[in-house]
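Format notes (please read before filing issues)

Several people have asked whether sequences and structure tokens are stored in separate files. They are not. Every record keeps both together, in the order shown below: the sequence lines, then the token lines. Line labels are part of the format and must not be stripped during preprocessing.
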Amino acid sequence: PVCGMPAQREADAADMKCVNPSCPAQLEKSIINFVSRNAMDLKGFGESYISRLINEGYISDISDIYTLKNHRGKLIEKGILGREKNTDKLLKIIEDSKENTPDKLLTGLGIANIGKAAAKALMSEFGSVEALANASLEELMVPEDMGPVSANAVYEFFRNEKNLEILKKMADLGVKMTAEKEVLSH
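Then the structure lines:
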């Protein structure tokens, strides 16, 4: 790992992972996932910007993406997101993404085994991030294609205090956490 902490093999997995939750490489990977097309779809928000924002201290978790507008002047001055026009364009894309459906947010959280399809299934079952966070392990296995491994990954994610703090911060910043109820027409 880039941070110098040890790597550890997860139970029943071939992959080795860094044990440091604050590892810059893990943060960068999680931000790249968060902004990707299948997740929050922040077009133009590339790896070089992400790396620089982390290195300059503007991003320490995914919720910090939504506070970048507070640093607009400094970002332009330092050219981190390019010049004024490009910085404003990216800040607008970030602001607009707050209205994305919560399944896109859920996909972007990087929960093990939870991709686009699983996130849609979970949101259609639970309707909100809060309901999902409060679901029991048994309730998490109700949606189609949700097995014990995926359900446990979701359950454990929402039992982590840091994850809950990040989600609360995002909700406070206006990121949509509840799915719209589909209106049935007669």
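For reference, the curators noted about this record: The CA atoms of residues 63 and 165 lie 9 Å apart. The chain has a mean pLDDT of 89.
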